Predict the structure of DNA-binding protein.
Amino acid sequence: MAEWLEEILRHPTTSIPNAGKALGLSRNASYQAAGRGEILVLQFGRLKRVPTEWLRSTLLLPKK
């Protein structure tokens, strides 16, 4: 697994662009997918984060 992906998955959540990068999407495509509900997003006020457990399962990676 790539070092940058391991770093992302060490945390409970990540940004939409980072999640998109892991899925092979551009920054704009990531936000569009999140807006359509294709990327799971948690919203805390204006802050939007993607749960890394969701990302891990979407990528078919083993659980921690």
The chain has a mean pLDDT of 97. The CA atoms of residues 10 and 52 lie 8 Å apart. Strands lie at 13-14, 42-44, 47-51. The longest strand covers residues 47-51.
